Amino acid sequence: MDPARIEAMLDFLALADRLKTVERRGRVPLPDGTTRRENSAEHCWNLALVALLLHREVAAEIDLGRVLSMIAVHDLVEIEAGDTYAYDPAARLTQAAREAAAAELVFGALPPDLGARLRALWEEFEAGETAEARFAMGCDRLQGFLQNVLSEGLAWKEHGVTRADTAPRMQPAMAADPAFAALIGALYARAAAGGMLPE
Amino acid sequence: MDPARIEAMLDFLALADRLKTVERRGRVPLPDGTTRRENSAEHCWNLALVALLLHREVAAEIDLGRVLSMIAVHDLVEIEAGDTYAYDPAARLTQAAREAAAAELVFGALPPDLGARLRALWEEFEAGETAEARFAMGCDRLQGFLQNVLSEGLAWKEHGVTRADTAPRMQPAMAADPAFAALIGALYARAAAGGMLPE
Question: Is B89 on the interface with A (CB under 8 A)?
């Protein structure tokens, strides 16, 4: 391999490492009974595990390699743009512009062929048009919801999120496949039983 | 989907969440200039990104979907067995037995078909015999080494690790493909230039 290519890959990996310091609102239960915020790198691994569990439960034929590739890169723009909370309408208004600028910087740090390949995966996820992108979206929303249920709805309570507030985010996931509807339905039931999400 | 299957999948995901609390020795640089330990969930995501960057740089034809699936599950046993430091010979003596017992518990929490599928991926990674498992091993060792270089060799210094100590772990990765040899060679050069790893 060309030395410049090697150095560029290592520099990109040094940049990508910062995803481990991007905090989400969802919380991770700790062994001592407290919680801390989840970071976006942990979320990406968790999402990969959800996709691995579910890819044969859905009706569509899913290219798992493409899904897992999309998942690995789908949040890289947050290194520059930060995580945008699902229930923060003001931040969501500027999200697309912030993330497009971040994509130039993050994918631009790679050798052109690799940058184009990773950027195409991110764009496929964002566009949500392929079966793989819709499946990844369903896994993403399921994982975010699950994280709240695992931490007794702390982030929901912190931000005053109601069950109705979650509908615009969770309905597309539930509509993506009956398997998502079943799992998310079961999570709504757990949230209700635990008094985590007011009507 | 059968309700019992749904509940078992959610319970497994609740258990798997604990991987985010398993600390490794490698350290993550923070924006304030300090570091903290990396956890195994972050490591798994990072490894997936390394695999995505490298799978077309190696000579072997690699099934990326299988590699990324293996990566997503390869550390799940640490939920019960903990992370075993690469340079802790006493802990490594008991590692296989501790991880085999953990596998029973972790994969046994899933519906049998899913448990068998995930367990087979973990076993393939551990056996290191397929092209995909060898590729994943190379990515794993590269990522661990990179994490030390990104945090100025702090974990190496903390444990008195020398360049010679790293050879038994890094040589198999460098032998797996010239691309790994080139990238790890460049990382050794960065470590040497930064005085991170004494001879």
Answer: no
Supply the DSSP string of B94-117, one letter for each residue: HHHHHHHHHHHHHHHTS-HHHHHH
A39: enclosing H helix or E strand: strand A35-39
Write down the pLDDT at residue A86: 84
Residue A87 reports pLDDT greater than 90: no
Give yes or no for a contact between A119 and A95, defined as CB atoms under 8 angstroms apart. Answer: no
Q: Which residues in chain B are closer than 8 Å to A28, comparing Cβ atoms?
A: 17, 20-21
ipTM value for the complex: 0.97
Residue A130: CB atoms within 10 Å: 17
Yes or no, beta carbons of A45 and B50 under 8 Å apart: no
Element spanning B36, H or E: strand B35-39
Token pair for residue A18? Answer: 């910062």
B125 touches B70 (CB < 8 A): yes
CATH code for position B73: 1.10.3210.10
**pLDDT grade for B87, boundaries at 50, 70 and 90:** confident
Give the range of the structural domain holding residue B55, as residue numbers without chain letter: 3-193
pLDDT value at position A1? 85
**Residue A198 within a domain:** no
- Give the up-direction half-sphere exposure of residue B131: CA atoms within 13 A in the CB hemisphere: 10
pLDDT at A105: 95
Chain A touched by B139 (CB under 8 Å): no
The count of domains in chain B is 1
User: Phi and psi at residue B27, in whole multiples of 5°?
Assistant: -120, 145
* Within a domain: B198: no
pLDDT at A177: 98
Mean pLDDT estimate for chain A: 96
Q: Nearest-CA distance from A129 to chain B in Å?
A: 20
Locate all alpha helices (DSSP H) within chain A, ordered by sequence.
Answer: 3-16, 40-54, 64-73, 78-81, 89-108, 112-127, 131-150, 154-158, 163-176, 178-193
Contact assignment for B190 to A10 by CB distance below 8 Å: yes
Least confident of A65-79, A83-97, B63-77, B118-132: A83-97
Label each residue of B113-178 as H, E or C: HHHHHHHHHHHHHHHCCCHHHHHHHHHHHHHHHHHHHHCCCHHHHHHCCCHHHHHHHHHHHHHHCH
Q: Provide Rg for chain A, Cα atoms.
A: 17
B34 touches chain A (CB under 8 A): no
